[in-house]
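Suppose you are handed a protein chain with no further information: no name, no annotation, nothing but its sequence. What can you learn? This example shows the usual starting point.
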Amino acid sequence: MVIMARIQGRNIAETSPDKIPRTVIDAVRKAINILHSKDYVFGDLRKANVVVCDSGGMLIDFDWCDKEGKATYPLLNPDITWHRDASAGRLIRKEHDSYMLTLLEKDSE
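A reasonable first move is to predict its three-dimensional structure. Written in structure tokens, the prediction is:
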């Protein structure tokens, strides 16, 4: 089932290209922790898939999200710094999400 809703906000690639507000990072970390606690992986954690909104931040684009051990990567954009083990057809792991979160945190205020 796919559930879609219109979200008021803009992704951080557009709104905060240099420094990501700490409230956004905290909200993203919380969302990733919730997914991981249920054995889900997000897989595509990058600025384009994080929206700044009233609650801080929100993940969007759950196309790659699935149970860890089941979700696999599609072809990846080579211009994005992915986890060293991420490549097309390979399993998406929680550690990959954690790595991508670390990259976002490096860009935080």
